[in-house]
TrEMBL record:
Any single biological process term in GO: transposition
One example GO MF annotation: DNA binding
Taxonomic source organism: Palleronia caenipelagi
Protein name, UniProt field: IS6 family transposase
Entries under PANTHER family matching the protein: BLL1675 PROTEIN (PTHR35528:SF3)
Protein's UniProt keywords contain Acyltransferase: no
Keyword Lipid biosynthesis listed: no
Segments passing through the bilayer: none
Ranges of residues in domain Integrase catalytic: 52-226
InterPro entries with a match to the protein in the record: DDE_dom, Integrase_cat-core, IS_Transposase, RNaseH-like_sf, Transpos_IS6
Keyword set, alphabetical order: DNA recombination, DNA-binding, Transposition
Pfam families xrefs: DDE_Tnp_IS240
Amino acid sequence: MIDFKGAHYPKEAILYAVFFYVRYAVSYRDLEEIMAERGVPVDHATLNRWVVKYAPLIADAAQQRKAATAGSWRTDETYIKVKGEWTYLFRAVDRDGQTLDFMLSERRDEDAAIRFFERTIDRNGWPDKVVIDKSGANLAGLGNINIALILAGWYWLIEVLQVTYLNNRIEQDHRFIKKITRSMMGFKSFNAAQAPLAGIETAHMIRKGQLGDAGSSPFQTFADLAG
């Protein structure tokens, strides 16, 4: 359960603001106006603090509660602008398009790929197969993980496929993330980008039915993650 103790606004108002920001293509100043129209006068700087504080906590709860995913993965990176520079959002879905994990990185290299795959495996278990694009970084990262399996005495390895058309599912999945981030006009710092991206990915998981009761509204599902 997320602790809202000390907050100067009701929990429901905070969650509504955070959800609205990560679900719809609005700026903080747009959201400030929307909240005022609903009788909640709050400035855009406070809204930013709410997103930075609560979105990652809700995203962590989503990872723990999401439905089981398949062992055949699709991985790829999309671009996110931070301080006017392009950074890399590593993302993975399963064969059915269900979100596995995501990680923002300043670099697209072997070390970043290893960190991403280790994180995704830790949260989802070992995959049977991973489909990647022609990225040498991802190929090298998975190669290192397979070497670690061999050294540990495992008798099976992760099957790695570099087949472009098989990755169409995740390339299509990027579109929702890009649509929401486009209105944010880029992020001022790497750390400032991570929190809203975690919230955006969580809202996307809700859209795909990975969390909560199908009869609940998207906002209710989001709020339930806060406990």
